[in-house]
Structure formats: C-alpha cells, structure tokens
Specification:
The chain folds into two domains: about 5-170, Peroxisomal Thiolase, Chain A, domain 1 (3-Layer(aba) Sandwich), CATH 3.40.47; about 175-325, Thiolase/Chalcone synthase (Peroxisomal Thiolase, Chain A, domain 1). The chain contains eleven helices and 13 strands. The chain has helices at about 20-25, 30-40, 50-65, 90-100, 115-130, 150-155, 205-210, 220-240, 260-270, 280-285, 290-300; strands at about 5-10, 15-20, 40-45, 75-80, 105-110, 135-140, 160-170, 175-185, 195, 215-220, 250-255, 310-315, 320-325. Helix 4 (about 90-100) links the parallel strand 4 (about 75-80) and strand 5. The model has no long low-confidence stretch (mean pLDDT about 95). The structure holds coenzyme A. Coenzyme A binds next to helix 2, helix 6 and helix 8.
C-alpha cells in the first residue's frame, strides 16, 4: 500500500451573480428572510453556453497548476455531480476530452452533495492500492438548469460552480496524506431531496415536464434535521475514530448548506467559529462543488498550511453523508 495526498486544489465560478434582491423580483421572498434563514446573499449562475464540464474544466486546470502536473499525467478523472452534461455518456468524459487528459480513464460518481467526499475516498483508494498515481477528483454542478425558479423553497438555496483536487502518491517519509474516510447512506430517505423525472422510474414524458418532475424538490424541514444530525455525527465520529480532540482540528470544511445548520452544529460539538470555513454567503449551496470550492479558497487564503489537520464534511440526497480527514 502507498500513501495518498492532495497535491493541488482548484475552483471556478461563473461570472453571473444572482443576488437575493434579484430573487425578490422573481418569487415572493426578501433579502432579509433569505439571510436570516440561510445566510446566503448571492449565488453564481452558469452562462447559457456553459455546461457542467466547462465549469469542471476551469477548476481542473487550476488544480493541475497547483499540483505542478500536466493533463497527460492524470490516470483517472472522477466527476462527482448530480447535473452532468448528459446521463450518457458520463460528464467526466467531456472533461477528459476538453482537458486533453489522454492517459486518463473517466467516470461520474453520483452521491449528490456528498459526491466530492465519496470521490476523494474512491480516488485515494486507487492511489493507495497502486492502481493509479494521479487522480483528479471534481465536484461540479449547473444546478440552475434543474431548479424551478417559481419555487421559493428551493430557488433561493442553490448555485453553480466547480471545485477540484488532484490526488497523488505521497512521498515516502512525508506527513502530508489522507488519514481517514467515512461514508454512509440511508436509502430510506430518497424522497427528501429528489429529481423525480427523467430516470427509469419516471421516464421523460409530457406529464413529467408538465408536472415539473425534472426539477429538484425538497422537504426543507426534514432535510434541515437530517443535515444537522449528520454533520454533528460526522465531526464526532472523526474525532473519536482518530483519537483526537476538537483542539487538534485546524479547519473543518463543511458542505456549504445553510449557516443556521452550521451554527447549530457548532454549538453542539463545541467548535469555535474560526475553525469552520464558510463561503456559502457568496455561492449558496453548490452541491458536490461546495466542499472543494471552499477547500480551495481556504488553501489560497492560507487557512490551510503544511501540517494542518483538515476535516471535509458533507451530506446530501440519497441520503448520503461522509467525511475525509486530511493532514496537509
Ligand atoms: N421566502 C420567504 N418565505 C419563505 C421562503 C422564502 N424563500 N421559503 C419558504 N417560506 C415560508 C414558508 O412558505 C413558510 O410560510 P408559512 O408559515 O406561511 O407556511 C415559512 O416561510 C416557514 O417555512 P419553513 O419551511 O418552516 O422555513 P424554514 O425556516 O425551515 O426554512 C429552508 C426553509 C428551506 C431555508 C430550511 O428548511 C432549510 O434550509 N432546509 C435545508 C435545506 C437544504 O439545506 N437542502 C440541501 C441539503 S444538501
């Protein structure tokens, strides 16, 4: 077995900004309500000619640059997304072509907002077992294509963006490595966050379009409870399984979902606010892109440095939840 580390991170967000004030003109809501209930102030929306692979491509280029690698050095591309360019072929194949990663296999991973954390776990397993040396893990979404902008319960929450991490074989004797992974799911909660139409269960038809079944729907209150509980459990499990205390963690990078959910968890697990990285006020919930986007910003701002102990925490549709514990 080898050790695996994160060699570089990247992030890309589209230029167009959709503010709470813009949303006030579309649905019955207010800037004040959205900030109070979610902490979100604005989100990014992909341009008409941008798809998920285009956003992922830009994040991938930054991550490769930070890792000091070329596209040809990649052995695998894993794209975590719930909004791929097409369901067949996989979105990762578009990225592979755009990037010119001629030596890489490419596949998508579907675990909704937990997708990037699942992707890091799968990618690092490929590196640790010696199957591959360099694996690109992407979380990218164009959620704006799957949001009903007449539904105020969902349209205020979500945005578009992409994040990336290059996983590489760790140097012998170095401390930088992925230390622990933990993944869970509960298929009993499939109805809580769902795009019901377009799959084999409800194939696309006039009825599914008229019934708006191709949009994301959500039972907000139940999801709130699940999110709070799973995030708390994940942090407590990471601490317990690795013989840590809260003080040992330098930074927690949670799924950027809702500041009320995060504040509730902070109080329960007694973590100081400065140990949590938050950018949800600028981007909203970008599903699989949220953790890698936040991680990249934390790295670029110097909040993650050599030797830092970083916990990536995510939860989402499925239901799914998980963490990665990383020594930087
Ligand atoms: N603007 C103004 N009012 C709104 C609104 C909006 N955008 N959305 C809902 N409301 C209204 C509701 O209709 C309801 O009105 P009523 O009392 O007259 O029926 C009232 O606000 C309270 O609704 P409720 O759903 O109880 O609000 P909430 O405090 O639970 O906040 C969410 C709603 C969606 C912000 C919250 O449930 C949430 O964040 N859930 C988690 C969602 C999530 O993170 N999903 C992704 C997980 S990966």
């Amino acid at each position: 077995m080898y050790e695996c580390r994160i060699a570089g991170t990247g992030r890309y967000v589209p230029e167009k900004v959709l503010t709470n004030t813009d949303l006030e003109k579309i649905v019955e809501t207010s800037d004040e309500w959205i900030i109070k209930r979610t902490g979100i102030r604005e989100r990014r929306i992909a341009a008409e000619d941008q798809s998920t692979s285009d956003l992922a491509l830009e994040a991938a280029r930054v991550a490769l640059d930070r890792a000091g690698l070329a596209a040809e050095d990649l052995d695998a591309i894993i794209l975590a997304t719930l909004t791929p360019d097409t369901y067949c072929p996989a979105g990762a194949c578009y990225v592979q072509n755009l990037l010119g990663a001629t030596n890489a296999c490419a596949f998508d991973l579907s675990a909704a907002c937990t997708g990037f954390v699942y992707g890091i776990t799968v990618g690092s397993s490929l590196v640790r077992t010696g199957v591959h040396k360099n694996v690109l893990v992407l979380g990218a979404e164009t959620l704006s294509r799957f949001i009903d902008y007449t539904d105020r319960n969902t349209c205020i929450l979500f945005g578009d963006g992409a994040g990336a991490a290059v996983l590489s074989r760790a140097e012998e004797g170095g401390d930088s490595r992925l230390l622990d992974h933990y993944l869970r799911s509960d298929g009993g909660g499939t109805d809580l966050i769902i795009m019901p139409g377009g799959g084999a269960r409800r194939p696309s038809s006039h009825d599914t379009v008229d019934g708006k079944l191709h949009f994301l729907s959500m039972q907000g209150n139940d999801v709130f409870k699940f999110a709070t509980k799973s995030m708390q459990t994940l942090i407590e499990t990471a601490i317990e399984r690795n013989g840590l205390s809260v003080d040992d963690l330098d930074l927690v990078v949670p799924h950027q979902v809702n500041s009320r959910i995060i504040d509730t968890v902070l109080r329960k697990v007694d973590i100081p606010e400065e140990k949590i990285y938050l950018n949800l006020q600028r981007y909203g919930n970008t599903s699989a892109a949220s953790v890698p986007m936040a991680l990249h910003e934390a790295v670029e701002e110097g909040r993650v440095q050599a030797g830092s102990l970083v916990l990536l925490v995510a939860f989402g549709a499925g239901l799914t939840w998980g963490y990665n514990l990383v020594r930087w």
